[in-house]
Target: ABC transporter permease
Amino acid sequence: MKKSQSIVSNMEKKKSFHFLITISWLLLLLVIWQGIVVGFHVSDWILPKPTSIAQQLYDMKDILWPNIWQTLQEVLLGLCLSILLGAAVAIIMDVVPIFHVLIRPLLVISQTVPIVAIAPLLIVWFGFGLLPKMLVVILICFFPITLNILEGFQTVDPNLLKLFKTMHAKKWQLYQKVKFPAVLPYFFSGLKIAVTYSVMGAIIGEWLGASEGLGVMLTRATKSFLTSQLFAIAAIIVGLTFILYTIVELLQRLVAPWIYRKGEKK
Model:
């Protein structure tokens, strides 16, 4: 018991140490950035100082939240639907092998067509509301989730499946007891990829037609050559993506903690 507590304590210390190194490294990069801009007298419209970006964020505080919330709605709704749709399609392809042959090429094709070519069509078909932005997010996030779940199904131990079948386990029991637990690491890997693309998908949708959102703010800042504002909005997008990624990691720790235990043992 004492040994396991000591291992856990050492792991927590190691994580804290890594976190401090990461924060220190990021702060050092910001200091170097500030020093270069100030030292070489670079104009803010070419490359703004980190302090100028921070000031811009403070100046925009009253208009930021409504735009962040608009983009966040598109991202969260699109992600949730991507997970449901991706899981459903992957399960159907696993249950009925012929669908694997029929649907897989369509999944690949969906990723070869540029989103910037599809997004205007979605605007034409569904208007300028929330739906076309959600669909852009779904088109971007659906593929990695579906593909990773399929990969997970293919790595399930066949001997374990045979054992459950000899015990007369039903189809849904095979999924509940064997396949779903085995697929979780792959599902979360796909979700981590999807969540990093989701914000970008919402931004692309807003570029092509919206009245509110971070994409709209980004477009206006670009057209007005407001470089400090452009960097400030980009920082919010990066921060939002990082928060979503961290939430997925926390969910993975809660739902499938054995994944991290295996990694820590290595």
User: Anything to note?
Assistant: Confidence is low (pLDDT under 50) at residues 1-5. Residues 45-265 form a domain with the MetI-like fold fold (CATH 1.10.3720.10).
